[in-house]
Amino acid sequence: MKRDLYIYYRVPVENTRELHKRVARLQQGLAAECDIVAQLKRRPEEKDGRQTWMEVYLGVPPEFDAALERALAQAELSGLIDGQRHTEVFMDVSSCA
Questions:
Q1: Backbone φ, ψ for residue 86 (5° rounding)
Q2: What does the angle CA 5 – CA 90 – CA 92 come to, to the nearest 5 degrees?
Q3: pLDDT score, position 31
Q4: How many domains does the chain have?
Q5: CA atoms of 72 and 65, how far apart (whole Å)
Q6: Residue-range definition of the domain harbouring residue 50
Q7: pLDDT tens-digit series, residues 39-71
Q8: Which of 6, 36, 61, 71 is geometrically suited to a Cys-Cys bond with 88, CB 3.0 to 4.6 A?
Q9: Could you report the per-residue pLDDT of 64-87, keeping only the tens digit for each?
Q10: What pTM was computed for the model?
């Protein structure tokens, strides 16, 4: 059953340029490997020198979790974000009802 992942985290403003490059590469690779739609979003406002970013992965298959973990290890994002990545999982209502 396919799901959508929404992964959000905070980014110090001084890291945004480098993080954007790394996440773009990560998402391009995952989209090609797993045949999914990937998006990157952020809140319009900054707070305390930080932005909130969200990676969106639409229609991911069950094996996507392993592919994402491999891609994250290669991308080395943890040093550029503030705190943890938080993941929310959603499914189409028709799949759940």
A1: -115, 130
A2: 125
A3: 95
A4: 1
A5: 11
A6: 3-90
A7: 999 999 999 999 999 999 999 998 999 999 999
A8: 6
A9: 999 999 999 999 999 999 999 999
A10: 0.91
